[in-house]
Amino acid sequence: MSNKANKTPEQMKYEKLEQKHELKRPVLKNCIRAFWVGGLICTVGQAVTYFYIYFFNFTEQTAGNPTVATMIFISMLLTGFGVYDRLGQFAGAGSAVPVTGFGNAVISAAIEHRTEGFVLGVGGNMFKLAGSVILFGVFSAFVVALIKTLLTIWGVI
Amino acid sequence: MKKRLLIMNAISMILLSGCSGDGKVTDSDLALLKTTHPPAVLIDKNTKENLDLVQSIEYDVEKMKELYDVAVVKSNGDTLVAYKVKHLQRFHMKKIEKKMTKMLEEKYPDENFIVSSDYKIFIEAVELQEKMKDPKFTDKEAKKKLDKIIKLKNEMT
């Protein structure tokens, strides 16, 4: 951010003009949309969990893994069909924060770079955005596991 | 537009036709959705002492105000106690499990308890209780099923 004192009078004038014409962000509306769509995605996830509990040999503890895989797979398909993009436009963070957003990030990057070839295009760019999710996810899981292991060794928990 | 509507109609018809099964709906099918209060199951010598013991275990567990549904299955080795926790009390799941295990072990020191709040274990326990009504279902089969439930409970991932 540039310092206000360093601005020329023209810049200040332009800033005022910009503020006059700038559209106000509908924060509350966005939040409500994100809340509903995010909640809807999680409800579908819960239904998938119950499906695995009912029809397969999964307990509440173990049903999480196949549920996540299924949700990511569904969002990948929807991204390919162009449905998830519209949902993302409408819901914003509501569709990006749940695990389905991860599938969307992978496939949309793959589609975008398809013209650059399969190896350097799709392969090299597929995890452009999702890569950071994997990296920080794995790293934070490692740190939490390390803390838990140490606490268990010390007999705190 | 008309074509799309037709396709949507056809898909919903195909999906909904799956609901018209004439299979009998049992308690275990609905155990996830409603309170079933299954009677305690005894896979052991059918003596009065054993019956009294299993019923008294069920009575003691049902007295806990955090729970709303309890299934007890007792074999000659292990006693399985599966229960459903009231929604808002699910935040204290670990505490409730600890409290229950302590109470049961103090009151019935000779029994080996397996305690679980998992929905899948509860559904399986209700299913076992339903199967026990069938005279063709032997004690050996029941014990095998109980062992399977205990194995499922101990599975972590």
Number of domains of chain B: 1
Kindly report how far apart the N and C termini of chain A lie.
46 Å
Structural class of chain B: alpha/beta
CATH architecture of chain B: 2-Layer Sandwich
The dominant shape of chain A is: extended
Helix content of chain B: 40-55%
Quaternary structure annotation: heterodimer
Strand arrangement, major sheet of chain B: 1-2-3-4
Share of β-strand residues of chain A: under 5%
Extract low-pLDDT stretches of chain B: none
SSE arrangement of chain A, N to C: HHHHHHHH
What does this structure look like?
The complex is a heterodimer of chains A (157) and B (157). By secondary structure, chain A is mostly helical. Chain A has 2 domains: 31-126, no CATH class; 129-157. Chain A is built from 8 helices and no strands. Chain A is extended, with a radius of gyration of 22 Å. In chain A, 19% of the residues are buried. With 157 residues, chain B is an alpha/beta fold. Chain B has one domain (25-154): GMP Synthetase, Chain A, domain 3. Helices cover 51% and strands 16% of the residues of chain B. Chain B contains 6 helices and 4 strands. Chain B has helices at 2-17, 27-30, 48-62, 93-107, 119-132, 139-154; strands spanning 41-43, 67-75, 78-85, 112-116. Chain B has a 4-stranded mixed beta sheet with strand order 1-2-3-4, sandwiched between helices. The model of chain B has no long low-confidence stretch (mean pLDDT 86). The interface between A and B is small, with 11 and 11 residues.
